[in-house]
Input
Amino acid sequence: MTPQRRAIIQILVEDDNTHPTAEQIFARVQDTMPNMSPATIYNTLHELVEMGVLSELELGLGGRHYDLIMTDHAHLVCLDCKRIEDVPYDHGALALPDEQAHGFQVVDHRVIFRGYCPACALSPG
Amino acid sequence: MTPQRRAIIQILVEDDNTHPTAEQIFARVQDTMPNMSPATIYNTLHELVEMGVLSELELGLGGRHYDLIMTDHAHLVCLDCKRIEDVPYDHGALALPDEQAHGFQVVDHRVIFRGYCPACALSPG
DNA sequence: ATCCCTGCAAAGCCTTTGCAATGCA
DNA sequence: TGCATTGCAAAGGCTTTGCAGGGAT
Output
């Protein structure tokens, strides 16, 4: 547990629910540790994912977002401005029937709702 | 409708359910049109997505996969070998309650089941 | 003749890698 | 002291852009 890792985790805890990308985390961490390298960010994020503390999300927005694992939830994304919201979701609610599982051991599933946020629904573009 | 577009569409129709990436399509199209440029692939795919013929999938596998829109289905991915399977899924089955929608106009949602295919479940790594 | 599409080449963005130096335990 | 971690710099993969040539209508 190094200062670098503490700083990264702190950003994730403070900015919970912004779902930052590695790049955004990198940008923010510059404030306190201006010469942290990208490699450190990526290393740390991967380890935290490995440890099960973070989840890495691909939401169809063209980047990888990192999310502290707090509770069961799905994501709601604005296809226009890329805003991301958490929504409550019970992962027990949806199961893949055995006969459709192709013999897979299913470990989890993810749900993404896509649409337009209030602002973008009014003025598309 | 140019020969290039026909070739790309044909690959998608023939290889339905392999969910190729742009790169994979690019590689395959070389067989018949060796000097098609990447730009053409990407342009065409984007247009087809725009037209609603294809959907672009980010499945957490680190690339963008293209899928002919035939029928309602979800995706099942192997976290190890990255195999992708279609599974039947009724998109009417899951709805986001208004009070959780943050005012969004929800247009659709996507479901990804994650797990390990039979081969990878036996010999992980 | 016009306009859209193509190929080419280069740049771009994000991420990963290799290696030497650092510093934590 | 020893070993994991860091920073740096460079490379890598994939995608996008700009521009000029070419084909189709």
Observations:
- The longest helix of chain A spans residues 38-51.
